[in-house]
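User: Thanks for the earlier help. One more: Nucleotide-binding universal stress UspA family protein. Can you show the sequence and predicted structure together?

Assistant: Of course, both are below.
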Amino acid sequence: MTDIKTILVPVDGSKGSDKAVDFAISLAQVYKAKVNFLYIANINQLAINACLSDAILDAVTKAGDSVLDKALEKVPHGMQAEAFSETGSPAVTILEFVQENKNDMIVMGSRGLGVVKGVLLGSVSQYVVENAKCPVVIAK
Ligand SMILES: Nc1ncnc2c1ncn2[C@@H]1O[C@H](COP(=O)(O)OP(=O)(O)OP(=O)(O)O)[C@@H](O)[C@H]1O
Ligand SMILES: [Mg+2]
């Protein structure tokens, strides 16, 4: 049986990502695995180079911290969990993170904070499902 030691859960604070957090915690209980929550501040490199104001950067960082704190609060006693914050393209950053940290699987939502409705998968989950080398679960 495949040994799942660490589950990566990308979180953006949406309902879809809340479902992913719940499902990942259930899976982590079965596998006795650790959960890694990852929030990516979606600021493109151009905007960074154009020198974002400290106030904007501060607001984005705080938003991420509260999303990560909410996820950590759901973790039951005795389960290992860690929160990470990155900046960049969410889809690319999720794949880089899972590879670099050798996480064993990804659990994410089908949709996120995007406004386009009526599409089964958001662009981030679609990209990750297509390009990840590890198992990906889309929580619904
Ligand atoms: N910035 C982010 N940081 C971490 N995880 C994210 C981020 N954005 C999306 N995700 C993850 O991807 C899942 C699907 O979100 P996605 O962004 O693909 O859908 P959407 O917002 O509805 O569509 P789109 O972004 O294409 O408009 C979320 O439930 C969450 O698990
Ligand atoms: Mg989105």
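User: Great, one quick takeaway?

Assistant: The mean pLDDT is 92.
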